[in-house]
Amino acid sequence: MNIQETIQNLKELHSGNPWHGTAILPILQGVAYDKVNRKTAHQSNSIGQILEHMLSWRSFIQRKLEGDKPFDIQVNSRADWNKDKTYTQEEWQTLIDEFEKSHQTLCKIIASLDKDFLLKTVPGRNYDYTFLLNGLSQHDLYHIGQIALLNSLL
């Protein structure tokens, strides 16, 4: 995927009309606050925790795109999953606002890149930026599916 296709894909997933169904933003906006901290018997993370996890990895991607070579998130660390967190209504809205801001910021950063940048290896990883940005879409789609399912079950 080239830079323009990557941006278009992110925009479509975020608030467009993606092939799979409802975009991310309408799903998040459709979650009533009383469901944000609840879990099912088989789900170890709440909707709020899942969205915070999504934001953590978006931050990782943003920092790598901006050249922060040493920054990392250890899988299953508190930075990856804040499992003990309970969100106030204000904090929930802040997470949604941060997701929106993250989307705008990532699209702006990606638009500023040249095509050769996508082929560079991400510092500290064994893959390139094309793989990382494709992974962003996959990661968001996977977790927004979890959020949509939890929202319908709770």
Structural class: mainly alpha
* Overall 3D shape: globular
| Total helical segments | 5
Helix content: 55-70%
N- to C-terminal distance? 37 Å
The CATH superfamily title:
dinb family like domain
CATH class identity: Mainly Alpha
Biggest sheet statistics: none
Which runs of at least 5 residues are low in confidence (pLDDT < 50)?
Answer: none
* Counted beta strands: 0
Overall number of structural domains: 1
Percentage of residues in strands: under 5%
Overall average pLDDT: 95
Q: What do you see in this structure?
A:
The protein is mainly α and 154 residues long. It has one domain: dinb family like domain (Four Helix Bundle (Hemerythrin (Met), subunit A)), CATH 1.20.120.450. Helices cover 56% and strands 0% of the residues. The longest helix has 25 residues.
Strands, helices and their partners?
Layout: H1 3-15, H2 24-29, H3 47-65, H4 89-111, H5 129-153
Output the keywords.
154 residues; mainly alpha; 56% helix; 0% strand
Quick structural summary:
The protein is mainly α. Helices cover 56% and strands 0% of the residues. It has 5 helices and no strands.
